[in-house]
Structures are given as C-alpha cells and as structure tokens.
TrEMBL record:
Keyword DNA-binding on entry: yes
SMART domains (alphabetical): REC, Trans_reg_C
Residues covered by the Response regulatory domain: 2-116
DNA-binding region in chain numbering: 124-218
Identification of the protein by name: Response regulator transcription factor
Species for this entry: Bosea rubneri
PROSITE patterns in the record: OMPR_PHOB (PS51755), RESPONSE_REGULATORY (PS50110)
InterPro entries attached to this UniProt entry: CheY-like_superfamily, OmpR/PhoB-type_DNA-bd, Sig_transdc_resp-reg_C-effctor, Sig_transdc_resp-reg_receiver, WalR-like, WH-like_DNA-bd_sf
Keywords assigned: DNA-binding, Phosphoprotein
Annotated OmpR/PhoB-type domain residues: 124-218
Cleavable signal peptide: none
UniProt keyword annotation of Phosphoprotein present: yes
Modification 4-aspartylphosphate occurs at: 51
Domain of life: Bacteria
C-alpha cells in the first residue's frame, strides 16, 4: 500500500515516514501544501496523512482541492488545533479521520490501518484468503498456522492483493501502489515477486489472469 505524508515539521515528517515504512508501506512525503496538493492529484495513493497547518497552501484547502478533483483516497488529518470547529472544517472538506498533536505513533498506525481496511471493505485487521492469514497490525503472514518470512516488497505485494481479494489487479496498478516516488520502477519485477510468493506460500492463492494481471482468490478444492 502506498501512502503520502504531508507535514511541514521535518522531524515529525521523518518519524511518521519511518514508522510507516517499518510497518511495510511505500511512503512519499511533502513539506508544504503546494507540493502535497500536486502529489495527491497526480499519484495513486491508498491513503494520505495531512497536516492542517501547512505553508503555501493550508491543509483544508489542499483537501478541498483533492476532493474537487474527485480524488477519493482516505485522508487522516493531523492538527495541533483542538477546537471542535477546526475538526468540523476538516471533515466537511472531506477528511475521514483526524489525530490531534501530540499523538502516539502507534495510534496513528492503527488509524491508518483502519482507514485502509474500511476502504477495501474489510472488518478486521486480519486478512484471510484460503489458508493464508495476513495480520496487518503485526505485518505477519501465516499459512495453515505456520509463519512465512517475506521481504518487504513481497509483503507489500501480498497485502495489496489480499486487500483487493477477488479483483483482478494489473501489473501497472501494482507498480503504482507498491513503490514510492523515488523507487526505480520496473513492472518485470512484479513477476519475480509473484513467483517468490507462490514458492514461499506453497498454496495457490495468486492466480495469473493472462493479459490483465493477478488476482488473490482461495485455492479451489
């Protein structure tokens, strides 16, 4: 899953980005509203963490711009403002959740997981596909109760397919959602990761749909 963090405090931005990357996400960052507005309009993010008090363009205006452009990704707003009117303004602009500064990183991560889960139509933090269980909270994968060790890119690929279980996902979409802005993207590596995943999982839950992409589905009996 690919996220965007728009926060002008460089130390806080770095802390959030590091925590998200350690949790298995691909993350882009922006330090002002102008850059954040542009990235949110031009890149396909699964969710955005947006500060309200931004230079150049404030967070509410950024969010309004995204929604006018019909960008529907979930947005979690960060704010040092604790007045109810500021929270209402954020929600009315199109926010899905908010965290008031200062906050605990674990709470932020939990809220991001919840946003992604709801956006994909899942009720819990555990995704299940046949014998494969993926715990988004612990970034842990087990097959028939046995833990499977995956690289960060293998985990991202499996998590994205399982979040969108039952839907064909193209190679292009996978590339756009698995890698951050600075990564040297090559769609051919997707095939390599799929091959490795199939071997490590040992069960057939990732199907190739010729000419279209891949789909995560429970193996047929």
């Amino acid at each position: 899953m690919r996220l965007l963090v728009v926060e002008d405090d460089k130390d806080l931005n770095r802390q959030i980005v590091n925590a998200l990357e350690n949790a298995g996400y691909a993350v882009d960052k922006a330090f002002d509203g102008e850059e954040g507005l542009y990235l949110g309009e031009t890149e396909p993010y699964d969710a955005v963490i947006l500060d309200l008090g931004l230079p150049k363009v404030d967070g509410v205006a950024v969010l309004q711009g995204w929604r006018r452009a019909e960008k529907t990704m979930p947005v979690l707003i960060l704010t040092a403002r604790d007045r109810w009117s500021d929270k209402v303004a954020g929600f009315d602009a199109g926010a899905d959740d908010y965290v008031v500064k200062p906050f605990h990183i674990e709470e932020l991560l939990a809220r991001v997981r919840a946003l992604l889960r709801r956006a994909a139509g899942h009720a819990t933090s555990e995704l299940i596909c046949g014998p494969v269980r993926l715990d988004t909270r612990a970034s842990r994968v087990v097959v028939d109760g046995n833990p499977v060790k995956l690289t960060s890119h293998e985990y991202r690929l499996l998590a994205y397919l399982m979040h969108h279980q039952g839907r064909v996902v193209s190679r292009t979409e996978l590339v756009e959602h698995l890698y951050d802005q600075d990564f040297d993207r090559d769609s051919n590596t997707i095939e390599v990761f799929v091959g490795r995943l199939r071997k490590k999982l040992g069960v057939e839950i990732i199907e190739t749909v010729r000419g279209l992409g891949y789909i995560a589905a429970a193996a047929k009996a």
